[in-house]
Structures are given as structure tokens and as C-alpha cells.
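Suppose a colleague, Dr. K., hands you the sequence of a protein chain of 192 amino acids and asks what its three-dimensional shape might be. Before reaching for any lab equipment, you can write down a predicted structure in C-alpha cell form. Begin with the sequence itself:
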Amino acid sequence: MTKSPARHARGRHARPPSDFSARLHRLLASLRGSRRRRLGVAGAVTAAAAVLASVAVLALPGGSGPAPRAAVAARTATVPSPNERVGAAGDPDEITDAVPYFETKDPGKKVVKHVTDVRRSGSFVRVYTDLGETDENSEPAIDLCKWTTQFLKDGGDDEPRVFVHGKSDDNGSVVLANKQSDKDDCEVPETP
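The predicted structure, expressed as C-alpha cells, is then:
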């Protein structure tokens, strides 16, 4: 059986130590001799560890101030976010706290009375109403689109995408208003 050579074998074919290795060995040798240097290095390492720990704590979610959702909820007196669902057995796509938010915008319920369902569909939120297909770009449809956009922004959505649907006799749920980009104003363009 052959034995492998010693780990730090020196000989004709041995590699010289790397620059890093040589510097590390010199630093350790200098620390062995001086107590003052050892204390200085220990203090520097402790300070660096304290800085890293404080940065890590500050990077954690939560912080010392109130959560943004909590501040919004306190200001609007609604349930904090559209992402949180009420009831574990309920439909996960249904957004149950949207209608109470709309009611804060419409105390007389002139617009809210038309809402039949609010649900998430992928990255979009769809507001279903009992409005007809002739109500395209109507004031209630535009208001619902704008309110839903604000509701999503208050809940932390940076890019809200909203569709307001109405009933149609032959075409299912037609789009009465929508917001598909940040520059969109909720109005549906005329179709030729």
C-alpha cells in the first residue's frame, strides 16, 4: 500500500504558499508575541460582529414603527389587506374586505349596491357588478375601478390591475372599466 504524502510536504515539486497564506501566517506570528495586538484584533472582530448583527436586526421586517398596513387600516377603518382572507374554509380567490372598503367611499351605497363579487384572478382583481354592457365607462364603473386600485395600493400592491365587469345577455361578463397599467385611467377604449 502506498501512503499519501504529508499534507504540507515540501520537496522538489511542492507548491510555494499563496500570498494570502503567507500573510496570514505572518499576522498570526506577530499576534503570538504581543498582547496589545491580540486585544486590538479581538476588539476589531467584536465590533465587526456587532455591526453585522445590528444590520441584520434592522433588515428584519417589522421594525420599531407601526406596520404600513396597520397605519392604513387605522386611517381607513377597514380590514388591513386584500391578501388576508377571512375564514379558512372560504374561497381563496374571494376578497371579502373590498366591499366594506367601498362602503367607506360610498356611504349612500349608490355605487356599492351594484357589486356582486370581488375576487382575485391571477395578478388581477375582478369586480363583478349587475351593471349592463351599455354602462361601459359609466361613473359607477370608473368609481369602482379607482376605488379598487386605491384599495390594492393601501394593501401594499405596487402595480394594481383591475377589471370591472358587467352582465351581458350573450357575452358573459363584459369589461366596463379596467386598469391594466400605471398610466391607465380606468376607462375602456372605444371598440370599432
